[in-house]
Amino acid sequence: MTQTAKRVFLLEDEIDLCEIYTSMLENEGYDVRYATNSTEAEKTASNFNADLLLIDHNLRHSEKHGLEILPLLKKQNPNAKIVIFTNYGEDYIKQKALQAGADQCWIKLNFSKKKFLEAVEQLLQ
Question: Among 5, 40, 97, 107, which residue's beta carbon has the most beta carbons within 10 A?
């Protein structure tokens, strides 16, 4: 019996980062989809049934920022773990993320490739 790959949905406005994260996760056996703005995310995530949502807090050139789109994505993927990514270390962002329904809030700059993959694996256990 084969094990189904865990599904990860990534919402990140920088296409280069989308491709980097997608490549890292796919190399570890995850099924990954991504969107670069909130409108695209609403369409893509609704049919994906993700196990993990990785959402950038500050979505430039998007109708909604990460915390605004989080409730809809959570409703579309009710069993998914949710992580908000941010470049900022302010506690109020982490508090807002957790209040909005995120399981964790990560500061992007604090994660090496190894640390990122370990954190994803731990969340999906």
Answer: 97
